[in-house]
Amino acid sequence: MHRLLAVLVAALACAVHADVRVTDDTGRAVTLPRAASRIVTLAPFLTELAFSAGLGDAVVAVSEHSDFPAEARKRPTVSSAMGVSIEAVAALKPDLVIAWQDAIRPADIERFGALGIPVFVAQARRLDDVPRLLDIVGRLGGKPTAHLADGYRTRLRALQDAHRASVPMPVLVEIWHQPLTTLAGPHWINEAVALCGASNAFSDLPGIAPAISWELVLARQPRAIVGAGSAPREADFRAAWSDRTALDAVRAGRLVFIDGDLIQRPTLRLADGVERLCAGIDRVR
Q1: What pTM was estimated for this model as a whole?
Q2: Is position 115 within any domain?
Q3: Can you tell me the distance from the alpha carbon of 69 to that of 171, in angstroms, rounded to the nearest whole number?
Q4: Which long-range contacts (CB under 8 A, 24 or more apart) does 114-123 make?
Q5: What kind and span of H or E run contains 47?
Q6: Tens of each residue's pLDDT in the chain, 285 residues
Q7: How far apart are alpha carbons 116 and 138 in whole angstroms?
Q8: b/e sequence 248-276, b meaning 16+ C-beta within 10 Å
Q9: CB 145 within 8 A of CB 134
Q10: In angstroms, rounded to a whole number, what is the distance separating the alpha carbons of residues 285 and 283?
Q11: Do 138 and 183 belong together in one domain?
């Protein structure tokens, strides 16, 4: 019995200290000698994913605007739109940095590497990147997340099934008002619009977030206008469009507002945002 117990204890110790190996979204191999216990997250959505994975206690620093959950606001800020403070990060002695590909420079990754700090670089473009990245973040920190990922996918699948027979309704997705900016190409918001039985009337434009003219909007006359975080409050969103009565969508009141934090951040809360988007589109259909 004592020998069996010793074997079990040894096996558990090996499991705890086993290497963690993943490939990040730039194709780099990331290896940790053990699950990370001191983590720095360099984007608000990555901070949120780490907390969702049960790693809040391991997060020692975050990026600017990491405001969810509330506990994240208590962590020191080491990065902003201006860049990341390598010195501030190094002083915290993290065993993992999780960075957003769109916001980190290759030179910063190299500097972290020179300091012996592993960096996982994440990219998100699709709805399914949420559970994928959640799973990887959980693995890096030694936390299971399959039940959370399954719940997220189940909610989106239910919405897709409910709108499968819908005739696509062309909409304008507004992410900024001045200049008027929409989304084009592969993006989770465009996926969500399609999942809800609508279509982005400007998806053929070049780039990811193209600015568009009022003349083009008038020419295409989208059936509805979706404010995807383009204003802090619904009242502001509606007021910004109130004088654009040349648009059928405005005259008919086919305006749909979604809180930016629910639709612009690829986190588990994105399922809430998609549910609200579908409800709004159904209301004005």
Answers
A1: 0.90
A2: yes
A3: 32
A4: 115/86, 115/90, 117/89, 117/90, 118/30, 118/31, 118/32, 119/24, 119/30, 120/22, 120/24, 120/30, 120/96, 121/24, 121/25, 121/26, 121/28, 122/24, 122/25, 122/43, 122/46, 122/98, 123/25, 123/26
A5: helix 44-52
A6: 455 444 444 444 444 457 999 999 999 999 999 999 999 999 999 999 999 999 999 999 999 999 999 999 999 999 999 999 999 999 999 999 999 999 999 999 999 999 999 999 999 999 999 999 999 999 999 999 999 999 999 999 999 999 999 999 999 999 999 999 999 989 999 999 999 999 999 999 999 999 999 999 999 999 999 999 899 999 999 999 999 999 999 999 999 999 999 999 999 999 999 999 999 999 999
A7: 21
A8: ebbeeebbbbbbbbbbbbbbbbbbbbbbb
A9: yes
A10: 6
A11: no
Cα three-residue angle 4-142-98, rounded to 5 degrees: 155
Asked whether residue 4 is domain-assigned, the answer is no
Both tokens of 45, joined, read 């959505």
Within-domain flag for 100 = yes
Would residue 3 count as lying in a domain? no
- State how far the Cα of 96 lies from the Cα of 23, in Å rounded to an integer: 14
